[in-house]
Amino acid sequence: MIAGLVHLYLGYQINPDALASFSVENLSNQQYSRYLDVAPSPGHGLNSTPLPLFSPGITVKGALTVRFSDLTHFGG
Length: 76
Description:
Layout: E1 8-15, E2 18-25, E3 38-39, E4 51-52, E5 59-66
Antiparallel strand pairs: 1-2, 2-5, 3-4
């Protein structure tokens, strides 16, 4: 766990067939690198200290999931 790293997730069931969701990841916009997210240091050989690959800053996502039919088979 990284101190100060905050994620927010929100979901709302509009009706039995529709779900709206929204998320904000890294709400505090912290610069961090997950374990093993590294790249070799360029031009310094195999024994060099790896460079961290930083994760993105604030990430906002939204989704709408809709079920159009509850039929599991056709014709019967």
